[in-house]
Amino acid sequence: MELLDGKKCAESLVADISRKVAGYIGSGLRKPHMTIILVGTHAPSESYVKSKIASCGRAGFEGNLIRLPETVTEQELLAKISGINNDPSTDGVIVQLPLPSHINEQNVINAIAPEKDIDGFHPTNFGRMALGQKAFRPATAYGICKLLQFYDIPIRGKHCVVIGRSNIVGKPISIMLANDFDIGNATVTLTHIETPRELLLDETRRADIVIVAVGIPGFVSEDMVKEGVVLIDVGINRLENGKLVGDVDFAAVAPKCSWITPVPGGVGRMTVAALMINTLMAYENNFNLN
Ligand SMILES: Nc1nc2c(c(=O)[nH]1)N[C@@H](CN(C=O)c1ccc(C(=O)N[C@@H](CCC(=O)O)C(=O)O)cc1)CN2
């Protein structure tokens, strides 16, 4: 078993971005600029946003954080987004999820200008990604693809089983791996927690690649996978003792894997790196550099 080291891959990708940005700045252009909106004080979100801002610094970007109180209204948030949409000095904007329950997340996502939607969640970008067109791709799904590419994991013709059907991970990664662009051409089965157990086991036990994103510690057990499987664990579960674990019973399952992502240090890091790639793309679009 070998680790798909997200930390190592992310550092390599961000270093490449930093070199490219240094060239742009050397030619007289401003720094790429990302804005993050954080509503309330959700502890995991604080950690993720801190990682994103730090990564902006390493990439040579301006990264600024707008904090809004838990009590902000949906209309106030939409107005803030509108202002950023019209600010030519900002290349990309994200609203950190989840949002308080009184705010409709899809309304917020839909309010972000597609050309600044570096999360790739807007219907325009999601649709373009699904069609294999140029688009901002959802950061976690894109990060998984970049990690598989970094380690030359074969995808074409492989049987991939995705467990979880969220709009930000399960659905986009299923489409991207089945698509026929840069990394894809796999045969993908999308399952979820409503999939009957026998059907789920039948699929996962035959899978060459399993991607799990259900938010349940230990959901993938040793009996669910075949020898030599490539296992991508998207889970980020904080246990009562503070330990961070994924959706895979790592100790039991890892010995059967040819490759597996660690938690922490796997997909989470790649989410942040992919966001940097998308921000650079937004900047290059802005200055007609690509
Ligand atoms: N607007 C968005 N909100 C959220 C997204 C997203 O893509 N866009 N995804 C998830 C999680 N997420 C991004 O914000 C995220 C998850 C994990 C990490 C990360 O760096 N994890 C580290 C461990 C961090 C820790 O110790 O707490 C790791 O796995 O090594 C970054 C981002 C939710 N919301």
Description:
The protein is α/β, with parallel strands linked by helices and 290 residues long. The chain folds into two domains: 28-113, Leucine Dehydrogenase, chain A, domain 1 (Rossmann fold), CATH 3.40.50; 139-268, NAD(P)-binding Rossmann-like Domain (Rossmann fold), CATH 3.40.50.720. The chain is 41% helix and 16% strand. The protein has ten helices and eleven strands. It is globular. The termini are far apart. Bound molecules: the ligand Nc1nc2c(c(=O)[nH]1)N[C@@H](CN(C=O)c1ccc(C(=O)N[C@@H](CCC(=O)O)C(=O)O)cc1)CN2. The ligand Nc1nc2c(c(=O)[nH]1)N[C@@H](CN(C=O)c1ccc(C(=O)N[C@@H](CCC(=O)O)C(=O)O)cc1)CN2 binds at residues 47-48, 51, 94-97, 119, 139-140, 168, 236, 244, 263-266, 268-269, 271-272. NADP(+) binds at residues 164-166, 193, 236.
Overview in brief:
The protein has helices spanning 6-26, 43-59, 74-85, 105-111, 123-130, 139-150, 170-178, 197-204, 250-253, 267-286; strands spanning 2-3, 33-39, 62-68, 92-95, 159-163, 187-191, 209-212, 229-233, 237-238, 244-245, 257-260. With 290 residues, the chain is α/β, with parallel strands linked by helices.
Short descriptors:
alpha/beta, 10 helices, 290 residues, 3-stranded parallel β-sheet, Rossmann fold, 6-stranded parallel β-sheet, binds the ligand Nc1nc2c(c(=O)[nH]1)N[C@@H](CN(C=O)c1ccc(C(=O)N[C@@H](CCC(=O)O)C(=O)O)cc1)CN2
